[in-house]
């Protein structure tokens, strides 16, 4: 038998062994295909950064046509769920009891000042316990107020409202749906879990079951063993990625403005990084329990918190921003947001792909050097 044929036979045998192991282990199938469905449904439907139906108290001290028109503007807004209060004291008690999140206070001189000066102030009180929610609520309140004021002045025959007319336009996510932002980023977290968690137990499982000694006495080489172990999990991970993309497109209606093939190639590159991290953990930890815990702490949590998936990296402290540069998911999240929401923005895709390629080489190279066919390694 030629060396090439012997190498091929060893590799096929290793691939068959790992494939049978995956088939006989329902947990691997569940992590690859059931977990993405659960996470996507949970984050797609259960987590939202949008502010809708905000409970709003409206206090009108002197009802008339103008105050009724302004109150109606808040009633028609999809962002608020207004409730009338007779006095500001009653509204403040409701705010203290968290029955409302904000108060709009229309004082008794509102119409007089509006007619006399062409403009009038309204009082706004916002619950600031949740700072992010407070900023969003404040922005929506200002938007409703300014829109109503412009309509009122136009109704009075004022044609030139301002020297500069602002027409805001939102690019890439015109509907301003947080789901369109969250679901693509979640694919990076899912692939990190599939790649790192499954492969982190590959070598550790051999040690626990006592089959590592049997592998060591075979003529198989370290590179062949690593390739034979990683390829089935690579296919499994890419299958989970494709399932996630299908759900993103057809269940959550997330647009895919870039090329599917660019998404596939960059996903394969990121999967190699995740597999390299998982294999390195598996080589270091000879216990499946320890390997699983390490994979969560070293891969999943950083991908969830420091990748920009939910929390904006630019808002983090400078020291944490520096740390995010060693988190592979950070680069893949940038690629996903670009391909899904903006298109093939090549400077973003190529720069982040280059970073992932370097990380894949580093993790796989270290894992290869740490793997030896010796019991004392």
Q: Which class best fits the helix and strand makeup?
A: mainly alpha
Distance between the termini: 31 Å
Give the overall form.
Answer: elongated
- Main sheet attributes: strand count, strand direction, barrel closure: 4 strands, mixed
Q: In which order are the strands of the major sheet placed? A: 2-1-3-4
What is the H-and-E element order?
Answer: HHEHEHEHEHHHHHHHHHH
Number of domains: 2
Work out the helicity level: 55-70%
Label this structure with key terms:
377 residues; mainly alpha; abc type-2 transporter like fold; 6% strand; elongated
Question: What layout of secondary structure does this protein have?
Answer:
Elements: H1 3-24, H2 26-46, E1 54-60, H3 65-76, E2 80-85, H4 88-96, E3 102-106, H5 110-117, E4 123-126, H6 131-155, H7 178-200, H8 202-209, H9 212-216, H10 222-250, H11 260-284, H12 288-305, H13 318-323, H14 328-342, H15 346-370
Parallel strand pairs: 1-2, 1-3
Antiparallel strand pairs: 3-4
Helix pairs in contact: 1-10, 2-7, 2-10, 3-6, 7-10, 7-11, 7-12, 7-14, 10-11, 11-12, 11-14, 11-15, 14-15
Question: How do you describe this structure in short?
Answer:
The chain has helices at residues 3-24, 26-46, 65-76, 88-96, 110-117, 131-155, 178-200, 202-209, 212-216, 222-250, 260-284, 288-305, 318-323, 328-342, 346-370, and strands at residues 54-60, 80-85, 102-106, 123-126.
Description:
- There is one protein chain.
- The chain is mainly α.
- The protein has two domains: 3-47 and 177-370, no CATH class; 54-155, abc type-2 transporter like fold (3-Layer(aba) Sandwich), CATH 3.40.1710.
- Helix content is 67%, strand content 6%.
- The chain has 15 helices and four strands.
- It has helices at 3-24, 26-46, 65-76, 88-96, 110-117, 131-155, 178-200, 202-209, 212-216, 222-250, 260-284, 288-305, 318-323, 328-342, 346-370; strands at 54-60, 80-85, 102-106, 123-126.
- The chain has a four-stranded mixed beta sheet, sandwiched between helices.
- Helix 3 (65-76) links the parallel strand 1 (54-60) and strand 2 (80-85).
- Helix 3 (65-76) packs across helix 6 (131-155) and helix 11 runs parallel beside helix 15 (346-370).
- The longest helix has 29 residues, at 222-250.
- The mean pLDDT is 84.
